[in-house]
Every structure is written in structure tokens, then in C-alpha cells.
Write a structure and sequence with these properties.
Blueprint lengths: L5 H12 L6 H11 L3 H8 L14 E8 L9 E9 L10 E4 L8 H7 L3 H4 L9 H8 L3 E4 L3 H15 L7 E3 H8 L3 H9 L9 H7 L10 H19 L12
Parallel strand pairs: 1-4, 4-5
Antiparallel strand pairs: 1-2, 2-3
Helix pairs in contact: 2-3, 3-6, 8-11, 10-11
Length: about 250
């Protein structure tokens, strides 16, 4: 996970609060008719669970990207981590982690963050060779991410470059949930200016509030696992098993 600068992070948080619900079932049905790339068409044809489905019955997959920067139009994905899960189980045996040869320059500033070097990507596969596998892993599941615009925008941009089609899907954003559970994003960021670090909704700080262990950051697979565990803790603490998925996705 490549963190935003403080001002960008706050602005994105405001955008999350202003998001609107879509009729995802109808949207997927429409996109299944118009999509041409076979794996993407199959992704949409699988459909999406109704918003009334209990969260305890929803198959999910935690997803995290490491990238060469923060702009999906100028930067690219350099690693993908995903972990299939539900709110009661994390399927580590089915987790996937791919290092990818980036389509754009690997900046030293991003190498310092995620530790993926030029030698590590020299023989790595191109994103195009993983598209079908990735879409297959996401098919039929609700994506879980911490600050989901990163994953949504980078995946959308990457697919547009390679197959000339973007992608749309509902997400459970654990950052947005934590903002909801701690009352107000604006209050959180104001308090962070006053060094009230316990109010931060970054992934590591959010996990600390639920007494989850510390994991080293900026490895896509570890961050995906950390996000999966955070969602389970959030649901166990703040929700019930009969909460409908429509109450927490966007």
C-alpha cells in the first residue's frame, strides 16, 4: 500500500463520505452484455450478491497493490497481494502474491517505500500475463481494501491500457468503515494535527485499536492480510453477523 500525503489523504477521505450507492446487480448485468474481453465478461456474468445478503454469507477477497507512484495515469502496479476471506475465515492457503514488471519507471522514491528493486522486476511477468488469473480470483467475491480508490483506479487504468476496457466493482473499504466507527473523518484529521495519533485511520493505527499485531508495511500480500484481519475485527466489534452487506459496501 502506497500511502498518500496528508493533504491528499484527507481529500480522499472526504470523497469517500460523499460516495453514493449503486445498484450493482443491474450494473454487472449491463457490463456483462457490453464487455468484450472474455475474463472480464465472465467476471461480470458471475454477478454480485444482493445488498440484503448477510455479511456472514458473503465471499470476499482482500486486495492490495504496491505501485510506482500515486497517479494511475502516470504510474503503474508493481505488485499485487490478495487473500480470499469471509468475516469468519481467512484462506491463507489460497492467497496470491505477484511481483510485476512495471509499465512505467520504477522511481527510487517508491523503491524506498515498498523495497521492490529493479533487479526484483527484471524477470517479473508483465501485467497482461496475469489479467485472467487476477480477474478469476476476484470473480464472485466482494473486494476488501484499505483506502479502496488506490486499488480501483490503478486496476481500472491498467486494464484500459491492456484490454481497452476498464472495470467497476463494489468494495468494502476498511478505511471508510474506520472513519464511520470513529465518528468523523474531519475530526480525525484535525486531531492528528494535534498529535492525537490514536485517532489515525491508517491501516497500522486502525489495527492497533483492535489489538491486532503489527505487520511490516508496504508488502502487498502482508497488507492484504492486515486488511482482511482488520475487517474481521471491525465487524466483530461494531456489527453483527446479520448486518446486510449493503450497509458496508460502496
Amino acid at each position: 500500500m502506497f500511502y498518500l500525503a496528508k493533504k491528499q489523504f484527507a481529500a480522499q477521505g472526504d470523497a469517500i463520505l460523499q460516495g453514493k450507492q449503486l445498484d450493482w446487480s443491474s450494473r454487472f448485468a449491463l457490463l456483462a452484455k457490453t464487455s468484450k474481453y472474455p475474463a472480464l465478461k465472465a467476471f461480470y456474468q458471475q454477478g454480485v450478491v444482493p445488498p440484503s445478503t448477510l455479511i456472514s454469507e458473503v465471499p470476499m477477497v482482500a486486495l492490495d497493490f504496491e505501485t510506482t507512484g500515486l497517479d494511475p495515469n502516470q504510474d503503474s502496479i508493481v505488485s499485487i497481494g490478495l487473500v480470499p476471506m469471509s468475516i469468519s475465515r481467512i484462506r491463507c492457503n489460497a492467497a496470491r502474491h505477484w511481483i510485476i514488471k512495471p509499465e512505467t519507471r520504477l522511481h527510487s522514491s517508491s523503491v524506498v517505500v515498498h523495497g521492490i528493486t529493479h533487479s526484483a522486476v527484471a524477470d517479473a511477468p508483465d501485467f497482461s500475463s496475469l489479467i485472467d488469473k487476477l480477474l478469476g480470483c476476484l470473480q464472485g467475491k466482494i473486494v476488501v481494501a484499505h483506502h479502496s480508490p488506490i486499488e480501483q483506479r490503478f486496476l481500472n487504468a491498467a486494464l484500459k491500457r491492456h484490454i481497452h476496457e476498464g472495470i467497476e466493482f463494489p468494495v468494502i473499504d476498511t478505511m471508510a468503515l474506520e472513519a464511520r466507527f470513529t465518528r468523523s473523518i474531519r475530526k480525525i484529521f484535525w486531531r492528528s494535527l494535534l498529535a492525537r495519533q490514536s485517532e489515525s485511520i491508517r491501516l497500522t493505527d486502525s489495527r492497533t485499536r483492535y489489538h491486532l499485531p503489527y505487520y511490516r508495511q508496504h508488502n502487498a500480500l502482508t497488507d492484504a492480510l492486515a486488511c482482511a484481519e482488520l475487517l474481521q475485527a471491525q465487524c466483530a466489534t461494531n456489527l453483527t453477523a446479520d448486518t446486510p452487506i449493503g450497509a458496508i459496501w460502496s
